[in-house]
Amino acid sequence: MKSLCIRAPILLISLLLYLTVIASAVAAARTVTDAYGRQVEIPHTVEHVICSGPGALRLLTYLQCQSKIVAVDDMEKRRPQFDARPYALANPGFKEYPVFGEFRGHDHPELILTLEPLPQVIFKTYPTMGHDPVELFRKTGIPVVVLDYGNLGERRAELYRSLRIMGEVMGASARAEAVIAFLEETIADLHRRTADIAENLRPSCFVGGIAYRGPHGFQSTEPTYPPFAFVHARNLAHDRSLGEKALQHSSVAKEKIVVWDPEFLFLDLSTLQMGESAGGLFELKTDPAYRGLTAVRQGRVYGVLPYNWYTRNFGSILANAYFIGKRLYPERFADIDSAEKADEIYKFLVGQPVFPVMNAAFGHLAFTPVPLK
Known about the structure:
Blueprint: H1 2-28, E1 29-33, E2 39-43, E3 49-52, H2 56-62, E4 72-73, H3 86-89, E5 99-102, E6 106-107, H4 109-112, E7 121-125, H5 133-140, E8 144-147, H6 156-170, H7 173-194, E9 204-208, E10 220-221, H8 226-230, E11 234-235, E12 250-251, H9 254-260, E13 264-268, H10 279-286, H11 288-291, H12 294-297, E14 301-304, H13 314-328, H14 338-350, H15 355-361
Parallel strand pairs: 3-7, 4-5, 7-8, 9-11, 9-13, 13-14
Antiparallel strand pairs: 1-2, 5-6, 10-12
């Protein structure tokens, strides 16, 4: 009886301690709303994460939280001849992390569960192209926060919302607002410099060689190419009848490019991945149809940084816009050095001036006339 009396207070104390631990755990959890509108319960403080899907690690780098990752997808482990991802160039240490899955969101739950430490949150972009986020949570027990990558055009609000969601999760809301303000101010500056230029004074342009799930030749373009839109260039591939909902990618018939005969041609350097005997540069050098274009004959073909490389490179989009603006309207951009402006953008977004490294990988053809002889 005496033993039972002694044990009773001990049991009561143990119960109270257990309830305190449970209450603390509940208090430590919080809920965020992801881009799908799902309520996702996450720890109060998040120190360890992984980023699944194109662009997810780019956004985390923008928020200066890349040190919180515990693993990478296999895209980050590659050592290609060409790389146009400023966030990765600024963080070569990504290659040393363990792998949790394949690129484009094809995660391996069994690998995730072997990570040490375990991620507390999984950020996921483009959730329909890889592992289903609900299934991923079911298999790992780790909260999955879905992000909408958006763009700098008609879906800018979605991008900004995702930056804010990621900032909320990581305790980096102030940095998220700073990134959004930087993007807005940069785009506004481009508009201020060019918006009042009369339509008949805007040179006609075409950009070719744009990547889309891999490299393409010169006919590959973007009807709503953001750098053109930001400096109010006359993009001949943009069918205005389609408005802002125009296709994000298009392959234009060579005959149409010849009929258009743009005053300025721009070559997305991602096309160099196709090698010396293929791709947009090879075509401009060897195809008689292209050789006859006015811009080719008069030396107005310029190299620009790759636009799509593991989805959209927002910093490169803005850097390209300043370069294109300077070529089309030199008096409006007289204060701009294109390479210096690119590194100003990169230093803010990814922390390092990576333009020289990236330009060297692409034969020093960025922001310069492309030699076609």
